Give the backbone structure.
Amino acid sequence: MNSTLTGTIATYLAQVKAELADLPPGELEDVLDDVASHLTEVAAEFEQEPTEAQLRERLGTPRQYADELRTAAGYPTSPRPPAQDRDAAERSLRWAIIAGTVGPFFMLIGLFSGSSEPAGFFLLIGAGVLFGAALLGVRALGDRSPRIVLDTPRGAQGAEFVRGLIAQIPPNVRSELVSIGQPVWWVARGMLGGGGFFALFGAGAVAVVGAIAGAGVSVWIGRRSQQDRRWLWYVVPLNVVAILAVPAALAAGFVGTSNGLFSFSNYDSRSGIPPYTTGLALDGEPIQNLYPFDEQGRQVSVRLYTENGKPLNQPLNDCNATYGQGGPTVSNLFPQAVIESHDPGVAEPDPATETSRPEQCRDTTRAPFVPPPVPATPTHPTAGTTPAPSTTPTPVPSVTPSATPSSKPTTPGVTLTVTPTR
Amino acid sequence: MDPSQLLKGVLDLAVLAVLRDADGYGYDVLRRLRAAGLEDVADASVYGTLRRLFAAGALTSYVQPSEEGPHRKYYGLNQTGLDLLAESTKTWNHFAGTMAGLLTKKEEAA
């Protein structure tokens, strides 16, 4: 009969059952049958499923209900010495406070620390404290309902304060918030928790999977904590963390700051596949490649490092990387080789060749642009470079005999200056 | 004076009286008590009282299917219950008379 009950009614019934646990088995079942049908009738008084607060207002706390039932039915009073109860509640509350403050504190340090390694360290400490304290709190409580914490002076004070805050919200907004906000909140905190956790280990794709899994777990925990209120011990501190972290993550996402967990830009490329937003940029525009030229305008190959000696690694887009034929996937050697394209201007041995097959793929480091003329520098008396057109009239006759094609009429100045340095 | 304190002593009698009119299930008894004016009666104590009276052998019990939901456990008075009701009524009337007399005298004296 009572197996058909769900939600807050089932929770209330379970709590009454816990209060009457000392009754002999047969009697307990019978009386719980009565309580179950009573709760069903009471629930029908409300237009929709009553909230826990509504049930308590209507019937008193499960403990009060059980005590009334006990007195009226002539059952012996509860064998539990109330003092022991209070002690357990005090202990539990103490652990809850420790879990609720120290744990999130460490986690926040983690969330806002600059890079991923200390972030992971502090997050793990925070999570450890949180779960350790929650576990001890649950153990201190034993089989008692966590609600007895509210019987202690500090617990009652805290509950009063929270109730005061909730009373500020208009009732219709309150029910809207619960019915719409709760599932959204479950999904949001789960995605952030799962995604954030896996983002620590790098790969973006893993973080996405983690976020989806986290959302699932979060919804499950949410449903679970509705059934068995002892789960609140875990859920409340985690919610505190999530309340702080969700807006922080959103803000970081919008502003695009590069703080700790929320950004991949300080991602260390040693540990795996590069995430989406890595790499170089100039004024916000991503840079695919760099083409260094020396003072004389010759293209050179260089390795680039940051001021910290960190290689300026950039994902490779050459044949090996594109077709997954092994070899490095990142490099700080510029210009990076890229797959040769089929621009009409570029000479191609076989115009019909497609680069869709690996064996026909060719790399090139040739700059895809004409380098601008090298500016004149006062330290090098290379007069022949830029003012070439003005000097051409005289040297041209002496050079032309060596069968220079007509296509290079303006380059002799360059060739002349380059030869001596070789 | 808190009516709920007074109620505790006479709840048995009130429940027996309600069941004398017609058999009823827990919630129905509760509703009838409220309708009669005992608005402060606590839900759980009515259910507890029914269980105790049943355990004491003053009530019969049977289950009837209901149209709206689960089966309902109906309670009715048996002979023991009727005897108990008669006896309790006598006790109550005597007590109420004594109290009334006491209060009236005091008022006259004042």
Q: What stands out?
A: Helices of chain B lie at 3-21, 26-35, 43-55, 79-109. Chain B is about 65% helix and 15% strand.
